Each structure stands twice: as C-alpha cells, then as structure tokens.
Amino acid sequence: MRQHGRLRTGRGLGLHDHACWTYDDDAEFRAAIVDFLDDGARAGNRLIYVGGDPVEKLRGDLDDLDGIDSLIGDGALQILSLSGVHRAGEAIDAEAQLAAYVAATDQAVEDGYTGLRVAAAATGLVAEPRTWAAHTRWETLADRYIASRPLAALCLYDRRELPDALLADIAAVHPASHAPPTMVPFRVYSQPDALMLEGEVDYFSADALRRLLPMTPLDDGEVVLDLSGLGFVDHHGVMALVEHARKFRLQRTLRFEKVPYPVERLCDVMGVSL
C-alpha cells in the first residue's frame, strides 16, 4: 500500500510513493529535499534533483546532503536544470516527460540501483495559468506510473508564488502531501488495480472532484473506483460521483468498489445509484 495522508517531513517515503510538498519557507524546502534524497541514498536508489534554476544553484540546495560529492561522482545523484529543456509558460509534454521517467527508472535498475527517486522543484512549471490543467493531468499520469514501478517522487511547490486553488488541485492528485489540512479535503490517486478516492467531499469540494476525476488517465478495460477511504460525503459529493459515472459509462465500464454504508444509504434516500 502506498503512503497516503499528510506528511510532516520529507522522510519515510519509499518506492511507489508520490508526494506533493507545498512550502513558504526556503529552509523547510531544502530540508524536505535533503531528507527525501538521503532516505533514497540509504535505500540504494539512484537520485535525481531537478528544477528550473541553474545547476549551480540547485547544487546549493543540497549542501546538507551527506556524501553529496561522492554521490555525484559515482553517478548516484544527478542534478538537472529544466531551463534548457522547458520553455517558461509552455505546458509540459506529459507523454514525453513520462517516457523520460520510464527510461531513467529502467536505467537505474539496470545499473544496479533498487529504483529511482526524483525530487522536482516544480513551481516554475505552473507559472502561467494556461499550463495549470495540463500540469495537473501530468501529475495524475505520473502517479499512475509510480504506483507500480520502482520510482518515488517528491513534487515541491512554493505557496508564495502560486494560488491556493491550483495547489489544492495538485495536492489532491497525490497520495500524500505536506500542505495546510484545509487545502486537501480529498485525494484521488492510483493503486495498481484501482483508482482510490479518500477524504471528504461536500458542497465546498464537490466541484473540485468533478474537475479532477476526468483528468485521471486510465488503462483500457474496466475501471474500478475504490471508495473505501471516503469519510464524510453529503448529497453534493454523491451527485458529483453519479454525474461522473453517467458520463464515463457512455464510453467505458466503471465499477464502484467498497462503497461505505453511509454513501449507499444516501444514494437510497436521493433515489440515485452509483
């Protein structure tokens, strides 16, 4: 089972984990990256730190990482700048980016590492509003891959530069996050055999669920939406699920699994079915 819920430090994440770290303090930002990469080094992962700044500045973020010079010299740590491969204001090419992560993960395993661990300073990738929806879709695509491959990712976003509404959407498609509790009332993320929905969905968050569920990429065949992690759901949340199911089933097969009794009861009272 992947780690999910609220993170307090950058430690404790393993392969298959995908976490969103929002921050408003540079020291906290650097500590989270160092903790995350240090755990990976101890676990025998290959490490990548990527961001929009020049490599020299990115290297400075890792000054507190034990053995950094040896890690770089041995090829166990790579520091990469997006400045030469990504143009500011352009949406990420999700398929190309995923192909790069697939290749890097496979290469890490071939080179004898237990897997790949990536810390990504991603604030610059969503500097322009026109990139927001595409970037959120990219996070869901990456999450589906990470759920079943030897890869872990920590995606870092600066709350001082980005609106809460965007960060709420991005955090909601990660199994785990470091963010104010009110920012992430629910999560929708991948397991190898199902799409998980957990948390609370009510009047205030139902529209976000309507927006995020269609963004989630899915494999061919029957789609399973596991509701075992749902807590409180009001009629607005139920209708968001019903509306999604009706639209989705025009093209694909969707099955709800482990539906909590309160949700079943509310569906009966409302005269609707999932």
Number of domains: 2
The CATH class label of the largest domain is Alpha Beta
What fraction, in percent, of the residue positions are helical? 25-40%
Separation of the first and last Cα atoms: 25 Å
Please summarize the sheet with the most strands: 7 strands, parallel
* General shape: elongated
Round the Cα radius of gyration to an integer and report it: 19 Å
Query: Do you know the CATH architecture of the largest domain?
Result: 3-Layer(aba) Sandwich
SSE string, helices as H and strands as E: EEHEHHEHEHEHEEEHEHEH
Roughly what is the average pLDDT, rounded to an integer?
93
What strand line-up does the widest sheet have? 1-7-2-6-5-3-4
CATH superfamily of the largest domain: P-loop containing nucleotide triphosphate hydrolases
Class from helix and strand fractions = alpha/beta
**Strands, total number:** 11
Number of helices: 9
Provide the β-strand percentage band: 15-25%
CATH topology of the largest domain: Rossmann fold
Q: Show unreliable segments.
A: none
